[in-house]
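User: Show me a protein chain along with its predicted structure.
Assistant: Here is one chain, sequence first, then structure tokens.
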Amino acid sequence: MASLDRRGRRRPVVLLSVGLASLLVSLADLVHSQTAPTVVPMTAHNLTWFLHPPQDGSTAGGFTMNQIPAPTRGLTVQLLSQPAWFSDPTLTGVFGPGALFRLTLPCTIGVLINVTYRLSITNAEGSGEQILGSQTEPMPMCFGTRTIFFPVETPVTLENQRLKLTIFTTVSAVLNLTTGPGTFLLTTNYTGTP
């Protein structure tokens, strides 16, 4: 197995097995580099992206969703303004065949209007949006949590890109959302970083 260096020359790589995970490490990186070697996880894993309120900072011009559970806070968002959450950090890898994309939200007291949930990928700055899938459904009155599945054609390859979750409606409506450990986007069958 080999890879190319910056001058187009072939350089050998070494496949290291560590427990259940396999890592691909460039031999040239190990021998000639003053920094840590390039490591690419070779096993598929799930990522849970917790939706954070604006008080926790912003990413790519929108709200942040990351792998740290958000504090439990009430958040009121105007759906006509199309609030969006961007994954942080960026992703470089592949959502393999059969990967699932599932949004879990706490139930809210709703009015029976149609709400659209859209999942996209963008570049690191938040532009260049490519829609992966969307669902439109009435905002139900319910107890506990509700789940929205995104129909996404896989595989999906990302290179230093972000996931973007947008929630909106075509009429003026407010969504009272509670952030915290029960408000997240779950993605499965991902190979790459993070």
